[in-house]
Amino acid sequence: MRKKKKRFNKNSIPFLLLAVIHLGMFLLLLKRKKQKDTWILLLSNIGFAYLFEYLVLNLFHGYRYKPSIMKKRAFDSVLGAIFSQAIYVPITATFLTLLNKNWKWKISFSLFYYCIENLFLRLNIYKVYWWRPIYTVVLLNVYFNISDAFYKALSAQKRWAMVIAHYLAIQVVWSTLLYVSAMKRYIRFGRGHFHTWTEHFKIVPLYSLILSFIALITSSKAGLSYRMPLPLSHIIIDITLVRMGILKVNTNQFIFACSRYLLMTFISRFFYKKIYKE
């Protein structure tokens, strides 16, 4: 019998410790700034980070995380990416933007992550292929400035910024739900008879982006009749992908799948009202 992987081990503790530190920063923000502004900017920054991670990690395999929390290597690496791109980096960007920190703070945090990345390499809990830590320093400063500019546009209620924020918020929640669904073996994407998890994590973000776009369009109108097109379109897309052999679905979890569709319908509407109405 295979031993159950311990959640707290020499690999996972540095990831979890960093998570606690950044969650503390986020709680500080919630006390000092409007919760609505904080959450919307954070979800937007996570969405931007997810798009970056999809290219560098999922498609081009620039590096691999090794927190040793999940049994499957692909899931473990993606979980490490979630720590990095949904907690560490977005919370820091949101922190710097909302507290109006200058370029010295941005460079300092970039160098901090450069040191963390090198430490993780020494601890063998992170592996690079073509990626280099110096790229982190440069691109983080770009990312921090994007966060600043995007928040200014949101504060000015620029329509394009509100649309992007709405879309990214939906996409972040939807991507997380799909990760849980795959982890529970409810779904798997791929080509051919055998679907690998590497293939799955190349395809599933595209699936998420498409469904998030449908949710964006359908959530702008009030009324039950506008809530139905989203789950119906999801079901049609899933049936089509299953017949094409791209998607495998655990039919025993049909009720869970339907609840996921309905949940996203109301979550997307909730984000719409928070961003546009309040």
Give a verbal description of the structure.
The protein has 278 residues and is mainly alpha-helical. It has helices spanning 12-32, 35-59, 73-98, 103-122, 133-155, 159-183, 197-218, 229-244, 254-277; strands at 63-65, 126-128, 187-189, 247-249. The chain is globular. The termini are far apart.
| Major sheet details | 2 strands, antiparallel
The CA-CA distance between the termini, in Å, is 54 Å
The H-and-E topology, N to C, reads as HHEHHEHHEHHEH
Which structural class do you get from the secondary structure elements?
mainly alpha
Quaternary: single chain
Helix content: over 70%
* Shape estimate: globular
Indicate the low-confidence ranges by residue numbers.
none
Report Rg.
Answer: 19 Å
Number of helices: 9
Percentage of residues in strands? under 5%
Strand order of the largest sheet: 1-2
Instruction: Estimate the mean pLDDT confidence.
Output: 90
Number of strands: 4
Task: Please describe the topology of this protein.
Elements: H1 12-32, H2 35-59, E1 63-65, H3 73-98, H4 103-122, E2 126-128, H5 133-155, H6 159-183, E3 187-189, H7 197-218, H8 229-244, E4 247-249, H9 254-277
In short:
With 278 residues, the chain is mainly α. The protein has helices spanning 12-32, 35-59, 73-98, 103-122, 133-155, 159-183, 197-218, 229-244, 254-277, and strands at residues 63-65, 126-128, 187-189, 247-249. The strands form two sheets. Strands 1-2 form a two-stranded antiparallel ribbon. Strands 3-4 form a two-stranded antiparallel ribbon.
Main features:
single chain; 278 residues; mainly alpha; two-stranded antiparallel ribbon; 4 strands; 73% helix; 4% strand; globular
